[in-house]
Write a structure and sequence with these properties.
214 residues, mainly alpha, 84% helix
């Protein structure tokens, strides 16, 4: 009885954490960060890490609290957002899985603001994280999503601060392989979101038809 109750309490936190962990894709971002940090001093490297995590966290939290209001303001339902966001996640994952495509190094590696862009956004907190955050709020609530985000951002900070360890542990080939698995999971989450959005819309139409006696 106690174990069952504990499992029910912890399950939403675990599921929200996993969804956001896949969306953040810190494993896939580590090789990109390592490319940026070449030639930087330890102080510059630490500043970039702090800036990137702070930017990613503030953006995710801002969207978590204001995202629904923004959607209502422009007349978009959660189901619409699920379908559009899911399709976007699938496209992003598919592009990342193609050998000829990478996330792209969009700025010079010595740009003083690269912790904000492109590391903080869109590499850490991009469309995948924003979409997943809003859906986790709708599914599990603000508190669960908040804690899942905090834990993920702590992991991001730790991982970026210890890139040498991960590189030694997995090697460059291992890091790429893990990243590919994450991209596949991201594509699967995109399909799931589209399916749930379509199911919500179909259920809504069915209820309207039934209520009118058709």
């Amino acid at each position: 009885m106690f174990n069952t109750s504990l499992k029910q309490i912890l399950e939403p936190y675990f599921l929200a954490f996993i969804a956001l962990f896949v969306a953040v894709d810190i494993i896939g971002n580590i090789p990109i960060f390592m490319a940026f940090e070449e030639g930087l001093t330890k102080k510059e490297r630490r500043k970039i890490i702090n800036d990137s995590v702070a930017t990613a966290t503030l953006l995710a939290f801002g969207f978590m609290f204001l995202g629904k209001w923004l959607l209502r303001f422009i007349g978009i339902s959660i189901a619409d957002f699920q379908i559009g966001g899911g399709a976007l996640l699938f496209i992003i994952a598919a592009r990342l899985l193609l050998p000829a495509n990478t996330k792209g190094l969009m700025v010079d590696s010595h740009d003083k603001d690269l912790g904000v862009f492109p590391l903080g956004t869109p590499l850490i907190t991009g469309p995948a994280v924003l979409t997943t955050t809003l859906l986790m709020v709708d599914r599990y609530g603000t508190l669960v999503t908040f804690i899942a985000l905090v834990v993920n951002m702590i992991i991001v900070w730790f991982a970026l601060s210890h890139t040498d360890f991960f590189n030694r542990l997995f090697g460059k080939g291992g890091m790429r392989a893990i990243a590919k698995v994450m991209y596949i999971l991201l594509a699967a989450i995109g399909v799931m979101m589209v399916r749930r959005g379509m199911t919500t819309i179909i259920d809504s139409i069915t209820r309207k038809v039934t209520s009118h006696g058709f």
